[in-house]
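Annex B. Sample input.
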Amino acid sequence: MITDQPQSNARTAREMLRAHRYGALSTLSKKFDGHPFGSITPYVVDHDGSVLILISSLAEHTKNLLHDARVSLITHDQHDPHIQTQGRVTVLGNAVFDDHREHCAERYLRYFPEAHTYYDMPDFNFFRITPSALRYIGGFGDIHWVKGEQIHVPPYPLMAEETELLKKINGKHRDALLQHAPEIINTTLTLIGIDCDGFDLRHESQTLRIASTTPLLNAQLALQYITATR
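Annex B, continued. Sample output.
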């Protein structure tokens, strides 16, 4: 049975999920009578905590989830060699076709611009995984089950304000982004996404996740937080 966990565990688990871009997606095989089938899948966590994936109807995992929507997705820091002691999170949920194609693409393609080629193909579609539970491991002995409703974020103004705010900051406040990544020098950073838990910067082909110390619930709060001198 899943027991109640402190909200801090939920946000930490959601933030860990947001910080990564790839995971191992497990579906239940249609061809092999429900045997677990794993595949590597890029993903983006949407504002509300759900997970967006762009997949082909020809892919084995798509055939599987259309037969049985139950899936799990595990992700971890691919740059950390200490697999057993690092943080990781496993999402359990249902993957459902999302017909708001252009809306999904607006955010997804900022994180994966190389996916434009796939997006233009008619057999690629978005599926949304709504978490029913998460298994969060922060490190040795730091292990929790978190309920899906604790991961879910109710609607907040920044959801509708993100696109315009990105244009504003990248157009007028780009220099302020450098203070969030002092290790990056002699380059330009681009802000590609903002959510209640933080924001994402692109440096060349690398994405840098910056967690916020306070919830960024609207454009004004996000602008102040991102551009404030530290």
